[in-house]
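Quick start: read one record
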Amino acid sequence: MQVFLRIDINLVALVLLGVVFLIAYQSLDRQDRINKKFLTTSLVIMLELVFETLTCMINRRPELWLIPVSELMHICLFITAPLLTYSWYKFNYSWTEPDSTIFKTREILYFIPIVINTVLTVLSPIYGFIFNIDSANVYHRGSLFLVSAVITYFYLIVSLIHILKRKGKIIKQEWIPMIGFGILPIIGGILQSLFYGVLLMWSCTAFSLVIIYYFLQQRMAHLDNLTGVWTRGSFDYYISRRIHHKADDKFGLIYADLDGLKQINDQYGHSEGDKAIQTAVGLIRSVLRKTDIIARMGGDEFAVIMECDSKEALEKTIERINVSFEAYNKTSGKRYRLEGSFGTDIFDMKYASIEQFLNHVDNLMYSQKRIKKADLR
């Protein structure tokens, strides 16, 4: 009964996270970067909950063969913990600073604590650095137990600080899950470190993932159902936050409109029109960088935000989009062609507001569309 009272919270967390994982696996877009991270992390946490629960169940059992089993599971627990928080830190950094060379130069330095923790953990069955299983199969914390704990929480704390500093670069629907993942595990981990025998770190991590799933569901409402790109609302929120936090910011914008979509809908049906939009978005995304953002502004209009400060770079991107459209048209076998009209410019402080800039680029796009129509007459 005493053992059950120790592991009951782990069992509840395991069942709850397992149910959420099954639902999420069916409902979330598994190609999305954040969703993939959520599903992978959930699997790892469930495995950690199983290991931690089993170590409690076999603790003090007299069978000698259980001693190496307990040691092996504790090795897995202590090695995995900082690896998980380190991978979360890497993900957060690459998400907010995808082109930064600073992280690449720090990566080796930041990985050193992982190596130290791994070595100490592997040697613990012999020297008792992080933990020790005695001859009676009883678990004890080692003299360097807090070293492993500090390494684990270090990456979570650094991640939280980094996210808070980059808040303006992350839309709300992604910022909240990133923050949420770190807070509960830190609280649970500190309590588990201070009060021997309390199991809270992995269960709190599981509960935080359940909360994150709720926000991932909310986030889906901010992605366009047809194309999977940002909605106009997400675009407006991101732009306003970005300019608010960095008034002298420069970025490129491409405004795109698919030509002839009305004719496709009229001649081949709206289902075919939807497929044309999906195909066009896929072709546009295929020539963009990971740092570029695409949003559906409504109907057949899309906006692409690019990290650049020259119009030449934007025009080269438009050229690549047109080339991808033309390559598709040659091999698609469709009776219609995919083509687009584009407007593009660099945002800087000469514009009184973001609305003025958007109207300017929108007008450039419609000017090109009018020229195309005039040429066809």
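The mean pLDDT is 85.
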